[in-house]
Design a protein that fits this description.
alpha+beta; Immunoglobulin-like; 7-stranded antiparallel β-sheet; 4-stranded antiparallel β-sheet; 3 helices; 11 strands; 16% helix; 39% strand; globular
Amino acid sequence: MSDPTTDQNGIIPSTGGGTRSAPKPAETEAPAQAAKPADDKVKAATDSAWEMSCETVAGNRMCQISASTITGDKSQVILVMSLAPAATKGIAMQMAVPLGIAVQDKVELTIEDAYRTDLSVDRCTQQGCLIEETVEPGMIAAMKEKAKAQVIVTTPEGNKVPIDLSLSGFSKALEAMEKQVGATQ
C-alpha cells in the first residue's frame, strides 16, 4: 500500500482506470479451463472509470462492470470493485482491497453524503483481500447519483487509510450490463 502521507491529504486518489489493469478478482479464482478469455471489454464512455466485460462460460454469457484505483505513482492497483448480476436476484459485488490491512476491522464504504456501510473481509488471496456482498439498492442509487466512492481500510497499527474510487461512467456501464443480461435471458 502506498504511503498516504505522500498523496493528497492522506487520500489515495482514483485514477479512473488508466492503462494498467489489475486481474479481475473473479478471474483469479476461476480455474483456467473453466473460462474463456473475455469476449469483449467496453468502456461505458471515453471518460469513464467503469468498464464492462463479458465472457462466455459453459455456454452462458456473463457480464460484469468494474473500476479500479491505482496508487499516485501509478505503480500498483490498490482497489478493484466489480459488480455483476447475482445468481439469484439483485447485484453481487466483489471488492479487492490491499493486503496488509487489519482484516478483523470493518472496511468502510461511503458514497459522498448519500450512502455508508461497513463491510467484512471474506478472505485474502495473493492479489488482495476480498469482500463479497449482495449490493443494497440504496448503494446502486447513490453510485448513479454521485461522483466518487471512498473505501477506508485500517492498518494493523490502527491508522485509517481512505482510497477514492471514481464513479464516472458508472450509470452507463450499469445500463450496458443490464442490457447484456436482458438480451441473454
